[in-house]
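Appendix B. Worked example

We walk through a single record from start to finish. Start with the input: the chain for SnoaL-like domain-containing protein, Pseudonocardia eucalypti, length 130.
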Amino acid sequence: MSLTRETVIMSNVRSSDEGPLPPYVTAKEAWWQPGVAGPSRARAVWVHLDRLFPDDPELRRQVVVDGLDLNRRARGLLARWWRGSRGQWLGEVTYTMHFIDGRENTLLWRDQLVPAFALTPRADNRPLQD
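Next comes the structure step. The output line below is what the pipeline stores for this chain.
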């Protein structure tokens, strides 16, 4: 069988008959199920920034008073799941990040790949920027 560009691309998208979900997902967490595509089907999620951006053990920890706040959860919208070449699940997520100094403006990151271990369902349904 020869692989075309379409079969390679589609092999990365989760289908309903594809093997098991990530092992730490329970059956009641239906937000992991396939078929999530487009903004109208987006699922509300938390992006755990401390998991996404862990501290570098080689660097001395310091606080940057006007830097991005990497210690909190960020509101996000999960558009779809992608499968990595090593078997990991990646969510395509749009999310906001705040600055640690408390300023009102935020950064909006669109269509970013986020590892599944850094995402959890969000029930508040509040908009990304409020």
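Two observations about the output. Residues 1-18, 23-31, 34-39 have pLDDT under 50 and may be disordered. The chain has two helices and five strands.
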